[in-house]
Amino acid sequence: MTLHNNALLPILVFSLLIMVSCNNRDSNQIIHGDAAQQAYVPPGEYDEFYAFLSGGYSGQITVYGLPSGRLFKEIPVFSQYPENGYGYSEETKNIFNTSYGFVPWDDSHHIELSQQNGEFDGRWLFVNGNNTPRIARIDLTTFETVEILEIPDVAGLHCSPFITENSEYLVSGTRFSVPIPQKDVPIDTYKENFKGLINYVSLDQEHGHMELAFQIEMPGFNYDLARNGKAVSHGWSFLTTYNSEQAHTLLEVNASQMDKDLMAIVNWKKAEEYLAEGRFTERETSYFHNLMDEGSGIVNSEERTSTKILDPKECPDMVYFIPVPKSPHGCDIDPSGEYIVGNGKLSADMSVYSFSQIMQAIEEENFDGEFDGIPIINYEAGLHGIVQKPGLGPLHTEFDGRGNAYTTFFISSEVVKWDVESKEILDRQPTFYSPGHLVIPGGETRKPNGKYLVAMNKITKDRFLPTGPEMMHSAQLFDISGEKMKLILDFPTKAEPHYAQAIEAEKLMPNSRKFYPIEENTHPYATLGEGNSRVERDGNEVHVYMTAMRSHLAPDNIEGIKVGDKVFFHLTNLEQDWDVPHGFAMQGATNAELLVMPGQTRTLLWEPKKVGVFAFYCTDFCSALHQEMSGYARVSAQGSDVPLKWGLNEELSDNREAANSFYEEAKANAAK
Amino acid sequence: MVDMKKLPSPKILMLLAVLCLAALFFFPLWQIRLDAAQFPGGLQLHIWINKVSGTDKNIIQNINILNHYIGMQAIHPDSIPELKYFPMINYFMVGLGLVFAWLNKSVGFLTWTVLLILLGILGIYDFYLWLYDYGHNLDPKAPIKVEGMTYMPPLLGKKDLLNFKVQSYPHWGGLFLGLATVFGGLSFIKSKSGK
Fold it and tell me: Helix or strand or coil: residue B60?
């Protein structure tokens, strides 16, 4: 008996091992022979697409190449970035001003590229901040965040930012309903006191500047995701909601009781009419608009104090609801603009709506009651059909422009391809593991480029070499040009990408700037030419007008600084060539470094606390003599009589005429 | 041999020569191209009769920054006197050519052509002197000193200078200058053979 048991144990262990290794092999077997070639971009060659992935809890955006999966850049958006001084430098720190004060972090979720005629035009990129509700704009010539607009009276701006087909508006909705205006009430008065808002931010077509145009007051649900109509459905917005139960605690259970939630349908052209007629109420509030000035790179921050509210009860024919399967996530619209897919993440089926049927139902007033005065369209009347048992936990759908839809299934961990017209399932491929959103280049537009699909997974586990409890997330790249989806690449992604958008490289590459022309620099503390470098004292403020050029900083010796001074290093990079940034780090500075692009001026504040001589240096390896690009600042005791002097390769002087004239000619040329 | 009968009249040939010379105001005379691994596409310096330019407007600053490491002087177009008086000479030659075309005398055509050839030779010699000076007159305090190394770019052809491959060739303007002497010479020959 004992013997028998002992013999059985190794057999059991052995068969378990086989099972495990078989499982591992299963996920490898689906990789086809030529997959490596398809995702391979040879050295020196370019990727076909740029992919912009939201950074989730990092607050940033990452830029990858497709099909290689190579990481090109992390764009700092909602989080301070010591790597280049974003949010630390005097110029950029205002970007984080909000009605709550300086908030140097956020949770970025959804990426939106600007559009014209329902196609990506490659001008701007937008992303939301979920925790402190705001929307950021990134300029795609510089890949820099240039504007952040706060959205007032909402909580958790998850449902954001979704663009209309000519970039007229960015639409967003509140994830958490809250008392509006905020007030001290018991939480269990949710149903009577809590409200939701759908926000329309208009875009200035020339510069992309954002303005909060109006807000629609809605029932207190959780607004989750949205899309705007295109082509036939242009002028309408569609937003999924959950928690139509209006629960305020243990939402996991209490918001998952009803068989269906509601999708909000907004006629924004109608809303514009009401706005023009003045049928809005103006409410006092507080939110911040932070905009970078192009010439100086300085972010100006402005508080706004009023908002225009449209109430659906007083504005008929503006907002409707239609039932949608349990706790939906994405509501996605096919390239024709006719079909709207409701991804009910807790439902076994997916509802596909028809825009023309919805319009007909509205016309015929085929309603099943109302909620807070908002008509609920009869579910069957608006339904094109149901995709039967496609998988478990549908989250998000995009399109390939050939009549097919691709949906991620979180729970069954797969991507499913199906035919929009016939609702027939055509293919399914596993992902590793549990995808949230997926992206096809242009997959939400009128003109998708149905070549690749990236599934962004929420769970990584064993996909890469382990790096302790915290790992990068994993993404899978599929070739979708054929009948069946083909897995061709696995790559790690930074922080937690929620949504991403991808665009043809040729739409962005020609516009990418190489440097900032120095003659366009309008920074008030710019030093245009080394001969203008100097140090000025104004009370306890010391302003260092410093220049950087390979391979020296001017001035590089400074004396006369005193403990208790506020020293502002205004560093102008005089270079006018591609890929020659200069960095600046000051020992004892309690903020970050500066990374200054050619032609740009950036300012670091240093408050010396100790007497002594302190070194500063260039942090970006700029040339063979980069290590020599450094200097000293002498700090004297408070009240000492050491005069203010500065210089470069000469006796220290206190007048600008005597400053070094090295390169003067060349810089004067650049400044011309 | 060129069939003289098929050539246009000496006057027309002279006017063509003048036209070629006028083109010097619109095209660079010479180009110096520097190629190195870190500079995809290379750096191109264009030498005109009245200015120095390049593939982009910051080329001189960028070349000066590179050159200062090895102690070469910065290129300051404003301090190169030739760029001021060469255009004057060119205006004079254009004017003189028009006068000789109007006079339509073979001696005029000959004088003009010989003068242009002499000026051309002097110009190339002057260019050589500048290149020699830039290449040899190095700052003794240069950060990078390579024993026995000078940095004169070639007048014509290719040369390796440290990490750069330097190529020096005539640009359109240089070709037009050559054509001007050819048309000038032909106008003289035609005027002689026509008599």
Answer: helix
Per the document, the length of chain A is 672
Q: What are the E-state strand segments in A36-118?
A: 49-54, 61-66, 71-75, 97-98, 101-102, 108-116
How far B53 CA lies from chain A's nearest CA (Å)?
Answer: 12
List of chain B residues with pLDDT < 70: 1-2, 194-195
* Residue B3 CB partners (closer than 8 Å, separation 6+): none
Locus of tokens 């700052």: B139
Instruction: Check: CB of residue A287 under 8 Å from CB of residue A97.
Output: no
Chain A contact for B60 (CB, 8 A cutoff): yes
User: Length of chain B, please?
Assistant: 195
Task: List CB contacts (< 8 A) between B76 and chain A.
Answer: 665-666
Q: For residue A367, give Cα distances in angstroms to A253, A363, A380, A382.
A: 29, 10, 11, 10
Which amino acid is it at A198?
A: I
List all residues 6 or more positions away from A505 whose beta carbon is below 8 Å from its beta carbon. A46, A47, A48, A49, A50, A65
**Which of B58, B68, B69, B80 best probes binding to A when mutated, by most A CB atoms within 10 angstroms?**
B58
Cross-chain Cβ contact A576/B60 below 8 Å:
no
CB contact under 8 A, A666 and B65: yes
User: Secondary structure of chain B: what % helix, strand, coil (to 5)?
Assistant: 55, 15, 30
A111 CB contacts (<8 Å, ≥6 apart)? Answer: A52, A53, A54, A61, A125, A126, A127, A499, A500, A501
Q: Do B76 and A665 touch (CB under 8 A)?
A: yes
A455, A438 Cβ separation under 8 angstroms: yes
Pairing of strands A541-549, A566-573: parallel
Average pLDDT in chain A: 91
Contacts of B78 in chain A (CB under 8 A): 665
DSSP letter for B25, please. G
CA distance B42 to chain A (A): 13
Query: Mind telling me how many Å the CA of A576 is from chain B's nearest CA?
Result: 6
Of A52, A48, A49, A47, the C-alpha closest to A62 is A52
Listed by number, the residues of chain B in 125-144 with a beta carbon closer than 8 Å to a beta carbon of chain A are 143-144
A404 membership: H or E segment, kind and range: strand A404-409
First to last CA, chain B: 19
Task: Give the pLDDT score at A14.
Answer: 43
> Residue B58: which of A551, A577, A623 has the nearest Cβ?
A577
A326 φ, ψ to 5°?
-10, 120
| Distance separating alpha carbons of residues A348 and A252, to the nearest angstrom | 18
**pTM of structure:** 0.91
- Render pLDDT for B109-152 as a digit per residue (tens, 0 to 9): 999 999 999 999 999 999 999 999 999 999 888 888 888 889 99
pLDDT digits (tens, 9 = 90+) for A260-300: 899 999 999 999 999 999 999 999 999 999 999 999 999 99
The helix or strand, by DSSP H or E, that contains position A241, with its residue range, turns out to be strand A236-242
CB atoms A665 and B62 under 8 Å: no
User: What one-character DSSP code corresponds to residue A56?
Assistant: B
Give chain A positions within 8 Å (CB) of B62.
576-577
Contact B68 A549 (CB under 8 A): no
The b-or-e profile of A256-269 (16+ CB within 10 A means b, else e) is beeebbbbbbbbbe
pLDDT of residue A8: 46
How far away is chain A from the Cα of B173, in angstroms, using its nearest Cα?
24
Q: Does residue A621 have a pLDDT over 60?
A: yes
By CA distance, what is B79's nearest residue in A?
A: A665
Quote the ipTM score: 0.87
10 Å CB burial of residue B81 (0-12, 13-18, 19+) is exposed
Average pLDDT rounded to a whole number, residues A75-102: 98
Among chain A residues, the shortest Cα distance to B143 is held by A625
